[in-house]
């Protein structure tokens, strides 16, 4: 029997092996192979492949390149912090390390092209060479000429070379406004539920039957498919919970065929996993320990449960003052902090735009002197303006509880924003017996 | 300095390589301290004492960090071993990077020491490949990568490898694949190391045996400071190499672990396997430090109540930094030995007694003038008084005795303080403070038994339930048993007898025992509802008192009263404030103002002081004016400052200049009736402009566009 993949340029057994390794992606692979054409033929200069996370883009290309033994350079754009690194990778994988050493210190694109042409003249391509670039969306942040140049690299270096870009973003978001060569677009759709089932079932546990694992995957997908379709995550979750699934089997309570009982056993467990380990509230290691020790009602607290921050006394008040300064309009300070302010009605006192909740609009910037003025009026004792008060402000900035919005070079009248939530500040003010709600304009 | 150049111009003279002779610490100490003669010995004493304190704190820190570091090490070891397992489950999820989130509290500078010891420990027992990075060095991904590579490869590279490094030190190679190649080469080489080489073979073999592939640990010292973007990219790069490069992260977190979730999106945090490690809170840390350094008779140097208060309030109100607290202690120590000539007696008993004999005439005169000594003399008989004031040898003998007394006082003070704290810390609402340092502060200030809170605490103690009372008394007896002085030994035996009596009570036939049960039960109820407010509590207590008076007291109650009386007796005997002790000035440092000035500086206040009363810093008598005004011969900036205080929010520069010229003319002694008096000439104008720009630089005024030729005033008050 022959598979979907067929091409005169490549041996059938190789293609069959490829097909086995990329379940549910035969169609896309077939398309790619036909685009690539016979090894010695010129291929299309650039191909753009997009699809969601974990839809098999890199995997398919990796398998194709490896199994068909094509000359290629695989580059991840995250890793290439500078274009130089990219050039070096490409040259190294095509012409060896010595070629890359000719690159000057911070090479420009034209230097790369020149060097490539020089090398090519010594060892011309017998087969199409491929550059596979993962996370291509990062190329948009690189030099403006890099992406257009890569798209028509074939022309520039005059060699049989094809650039394949992989991205999670559609091509429309890439197109530079100066225009460029249009690559061929190829979409990798998400895996369907059935396909996920098929793929996940392949990595079955050696000591259990494949059918059992497959039914386990079925249960798993029943719980998680509605929230997560990421193959990698699902595989991770499957691995984490399989032991628990097998527990009744190893204890001899249930036979492999009694799937309903197994389902009853594992289902609440998986639900719990969805709330904890899936969102990384607890790590997988802790999750496994919890399974072993048979938890007593969630003794382990997740990461987000630890929100309490211990702060020095005046830091707490500085934070309160910053919060008030960020969320109260400056005009209302008089009403809150001056003793005999007279009565100011909320309705006629307001400007139109202030009627919307300040909490919906987010924190507003404030100047240092306003912060200190509010601080001195909320703190209950007389505080000398010591150096440590000021250093506390900057340490609050380093702790990211405040953010400095003016540039750090600007020494004159720095401006800050308070970047903490109402819950956090109420917890802080409760510890110092300060009723913050009374001082917030939104809650008058 | 000269040049051989014939042309005019500016020449740079680099400072000659010979540095100025750095003077020793001792030189600075003895240069202008009180009582020159003994300064060298005092410096020696001070240094010794500080070294002892320092060693003690280091041991303490190590102990405190031990638990968390041990668990971290276990985590690291576990991670590196599970990676080598080849079973199904670990293969399935091998792509997670093990990460330890280490929560250390908000004072970031304090973490350095913890990280240093963590670094050393990891290096010593887990892996040679450890690197720690700081946010400020890693603004962009490239720098972070560079730091990591440099840290790892430099440290572990052997001599022959360094040549390789020199061949291609270009930043082009700054990528993780270089590291991964290096790592594989490294592990291969170390596994093929043959006994002939100069490596420590045995060590290597052992190493090799346990971890074939030691993990590569990267410590992020301050996670909050990192740019989230950089961190995300770095983590996603690392996860690509995790199969070749056994990485492990340690995140130092100052605020709360949820920061990790704020900084990293799910797609990135799903690459990590985060385990949480919470360190001791800094208040607990401080409590241990105070317990070991302050509340002990081991060190002769003491702080008085005010200094203690300053140090503690700096900690609680400002920085939460234990390191700063210890620095403050060091400052106080240094100041004490520097400023108090009698501090020569502040050392171990033997040495102190010896030093008494070496006291000079001037020192003895200082002793005679000590307030505590004067009080002591007044209490003596007339003949003795004269002798003490005139006979030097007699005084020396008396001093020796007094020093011994002081030591005895300290030896019993701390155990009794601890006992009192054990008892009062059980009481509802902590009348004498929750922490022992609060009780210590109360005791340092005045007679604790005269304190109202103390009396109410004693009343509450007289109502304590039996089991609670006995357990805390047991603790007290433990404390007393470890004390060495005779008085404490005596107190210990007495307490033991009392405890034995309690035991005896249990053995008494049941008919008698019933009664105390019925009495204690309402108290038990009371204990349960600890949260009730004080008023209610007092009410119930009063009621109970009333009802009790009518009843006959049970044997348990009698015994309990006896115990409380005993404790009260101990307190009145051993916990008087140090000020009541003669010669306490020798050991106690009391200048809280100095400590405050040094540790909690007030820059604005000092600038204002300098401007409003220049004589304070210039120490020039002629500048002093009685009514607090600035004399007209003060520096220009002071005059300008003084004049600007009289203005409103906006200052007219021309008026200001006129006023300035008038004041300065008067200072020059010009005749007020003269025509040129108060006229602005070029020099005055220039001087004025300079002082105005200086004021602007100091932040008192700024230019404004609201009105032409006006500047805005920025500060208020301070006249």
What does this structure look like?
The complex is a heterodimer of chains A (444) and B (719). By secondary structure, chain A is of the alpha/beta class. Chain A contains 20 helices and 8 strands. By secondary structure, chain B is an alpha/beta fold. Chain B has 4 domains: 28-62 and 282-447 and 577-600, no CATH class; 83-157 and 206-280, 3-Layer(aba) Sandwich (Rossmann fold), CATH 3.40.50; 471-575, no CATH class; 603-713, no CATH class. Chain B contains 32 helices and 10 strands. Chains A and B meet through helix 4, helix 11, helix 13, helix 14 and helix 19 of A and helix 3, strand 1, helix 5, helix 9 and helix 10 of B. Chain B: This is Origin recognition complex subunit 3. Chain B: InterPro entries: ORC3, ORC3_ins, ORC3_N, ORC_WH_C. Chain B: Component of ORC, a complex composed of at least 6 subunits: ORC1, ORC2, ORC3, ORC4, ORC5 and ORC6. ORC is regulated in a cell-cycle dependent manner. It is sequentially assembled at the exit from anaphase of mitosis and disassembled as cells enter S phase. Chain B: Residues 1-345 form the Origin recognition complex subunit 3 N-terminal domain.
């Amino acid at each position: 029997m022959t598979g979907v993949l067929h091409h005169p340029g490549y041996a059938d057994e190789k293609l069959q092996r490829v097909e086995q390794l990329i379940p549910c992606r035969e169609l896309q692979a077939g398309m790619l192979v036909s685009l690539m054409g016979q090894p010695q033929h010129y291929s299309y200069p650039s191909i753009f492949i997009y699809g969601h996370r974990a839809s098999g883009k890199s995997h398919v290309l990796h398998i194709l390149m490896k199994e068909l033994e094509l000359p290629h350079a695989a580059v991840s754009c995250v890793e290439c912090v500078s274009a130089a690194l990219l050039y070096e990778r490409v040259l190294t994988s095509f012409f060896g390390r010595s070629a890359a050493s000719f690159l000057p210190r911070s090479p420009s694109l034209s230097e790369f092209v020149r060097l490539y042409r020089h090398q090519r003249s010594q060892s011309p391509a017998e087969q199409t060479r491929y550059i596979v670039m993962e996370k291509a969306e990062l190329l948009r942040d690189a030099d403006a000429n890099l992406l257009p140049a890569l798209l028509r690299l074939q022309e520039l270096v005059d060699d049989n070379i094809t650039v394949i870009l992989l991205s999670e973003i559609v091509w429309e978001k890439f197109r530079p406004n100066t225009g460029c060569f249009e690559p061929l677009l190829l979409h990798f759709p998400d895996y369907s539920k059935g396909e996920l089932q098929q793929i996940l079932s392949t990595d079955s546990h050696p000591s259990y039957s494949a059918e059992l694992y497959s039914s386990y995957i079925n249960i798993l997908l029943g719980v998680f498919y509605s929230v997560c379709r990421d193959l990698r995550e699902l595989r991770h979750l499957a691995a984490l919970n399989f032991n628990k699934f097998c527990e009744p089997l190893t204890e001899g309570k249930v036979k492999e065929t009694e799937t309903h009982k197994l389902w009853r056993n594992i289902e609440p467990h998986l639900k719990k996993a969805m709330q904890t380990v899936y969102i990384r509230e607890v790590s997988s290691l802790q999750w496994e320990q919890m399974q072993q020790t048979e938890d007593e009602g969630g003794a382990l607290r997740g990461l987000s449960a630890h929100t309490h921050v211990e702060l020095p006394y005046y830091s707490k008040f500085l934070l309160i003052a910053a919060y008030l300064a960020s969320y109260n309009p400056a005009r209302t300070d008089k009403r809150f902090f001056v003793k005999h302010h007279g009565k100011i009605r909320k309705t006629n006192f307001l400007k139109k735009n202030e009627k919307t909740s300040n909490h919906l609009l987010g924190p507003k910037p404030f100047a240092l002197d306003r912060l200190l003025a509010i601080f001195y009026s909320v703190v209950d004792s007389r505080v000398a303006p010591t150096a440590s008060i000021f250093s506390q402000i900057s340490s609050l900035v380093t702790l990211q509880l405040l953010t400095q919005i003016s540039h750090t070079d600007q020494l004159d009248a720095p401006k800050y924003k308070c970047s903490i939530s109402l819950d956090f500040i109420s917890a802080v003010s409760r510890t110092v017996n300060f009723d913050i709600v009374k001082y917030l304009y939104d809650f008058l | 300095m000269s040049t051989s150049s014939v042309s005019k111009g500016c020449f740079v003279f680099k400072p000659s390589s010979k540095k100025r002779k750095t003077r020793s610490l001792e030189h600075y100490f003895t240069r202008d301290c009180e009582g020159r003669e003994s300064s060298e010995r005092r410096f020696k004493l001070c240094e010794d004492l500080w070294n002892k304190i320092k060693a003690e704190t280091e041991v303490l820190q190590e102990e405190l960090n031990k638990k968390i570091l041990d668990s971290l090490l276990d985590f690291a070891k576990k991670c590196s071993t599970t990676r080598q397992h080849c079973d199904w489950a670990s293969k399935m999820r091998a792509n997670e990077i093990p990460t330890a989130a280490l929560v250390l509290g908000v004072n970031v500078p304090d973490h350095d020491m913890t990280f240093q010891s963590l670094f050393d420990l990891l290096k010593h027992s887990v892996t040679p490949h450890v690197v720690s990075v700081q946010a400020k060095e890693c603004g962009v991904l490239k720098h972070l990568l560079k730091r990591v590579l440099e840290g790892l490869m430099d440290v572990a590279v052997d001599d022959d490898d360094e040549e390789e490094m020199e061949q291609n030190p270009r930043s082009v190679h700054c990528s993780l694949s270089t590291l991964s190649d290096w790592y594989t080469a490294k592990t291969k080489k170390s596994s093929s190391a043959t006994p002939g080489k100069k490596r420590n073979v045995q060590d290597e073999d052992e190493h090799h045996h346990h971890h074939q592939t030691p993990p590569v640990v990267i410590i992020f010292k301050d996670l909050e400071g990192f740019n989230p973007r950089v961190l995300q990219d770095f983590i996603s790069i690392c996860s690509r190499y995790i199969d070749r490069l056994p990485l492990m992260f340690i995140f130092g977190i100052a605020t709360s672990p949820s920061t990790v979730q704020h900084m990293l999106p799910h797609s990135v945090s799903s690459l990590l396997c985060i385990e949480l490690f919470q360190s001791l809170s800094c208040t607990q840390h401080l409590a241990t430090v105070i317990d070991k350094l302050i509340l002990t008779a081991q060190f002769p140097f003491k702080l008085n109540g005010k200094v203690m208060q300053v140090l503690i309030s700096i900690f609680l109100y400002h920085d939460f930094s234990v390191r700063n607290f210890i620095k403050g202690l060091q400052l106080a120590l240094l100041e004490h030995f520097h400023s108090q000539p009698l501090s020569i007696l502040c050392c171990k008993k033997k040495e102190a007694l010896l030093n008494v004999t070496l006291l000079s005439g001037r020192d003895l005169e200082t002793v005679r003038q000590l307030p505590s000594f004067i009080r002591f003399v007044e209490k003596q008989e007339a003949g003795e008084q004269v002798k003490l004031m005139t006979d030097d040898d007699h005084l020396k003998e008396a001093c020796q005795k007094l020093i011994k007394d002081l030591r005895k006082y300290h030896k019993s003070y701390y155990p009794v303080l601890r006992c009192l704290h054990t008892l009062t810390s059980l009481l509802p609402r902590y009348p004498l403070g929750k922490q022992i340092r609060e009780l210590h502060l109360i005791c340092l200030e005045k007679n604790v038994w005269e304190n109202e809170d103390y009396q109410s605490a004693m009343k509450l103690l007289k109502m304590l339930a039996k089991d609670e009372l006995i357990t805390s008394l047991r603790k007290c007896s433990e404390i007393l048993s470890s004390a060495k002085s005779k008085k404490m030994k005596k107190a210990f035996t007495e307490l033991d007898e009392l405890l034995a009596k309690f035991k005896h009570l249990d053995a008494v036939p049941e008919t008698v025992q019933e009664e105390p049960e019925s009495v204690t039960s309402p108290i038990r109820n009371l204990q349960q509802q600890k949260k009730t407010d004080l008023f209610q509590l007092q009410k119930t207590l009063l009621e109970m008192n009333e009802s009790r008076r009518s009843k006959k007291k049970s044997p348990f109650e009698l015994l309990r009263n006896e115990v409380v009386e005993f404790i009260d007796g101990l307190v009145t005997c051993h916990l008087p404030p140090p000020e009541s002790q003669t010669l306490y000035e020798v050991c106690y440092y009391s200048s809280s103002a100095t400590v405050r000035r040094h540790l909690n500086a007030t820059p604005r206040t000092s600038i204002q002081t300098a401007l409003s009363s220049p004589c304070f810093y210039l120490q020039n008598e002629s500048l002093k004016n009685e009514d607090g005004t600035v004399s007209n011969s003060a520096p220009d900036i002071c005059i300008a400052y003084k004049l600007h205080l009289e203005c409103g929010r906006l200052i007219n520069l021309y008026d200001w200049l006129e006023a300035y010229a008038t004041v300065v003319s008067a200072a020059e002694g010009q005749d007020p009736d003269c025509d040129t008096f108060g006229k602005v000439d070029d020099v005055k104008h220039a001087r004025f402009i300079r002082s105005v720009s200086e004021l602007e630089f100091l932040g008192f005024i700024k230019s404004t566009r609201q009105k032409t030729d006006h500047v805005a005033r920025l500060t208020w008050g301070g006249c």
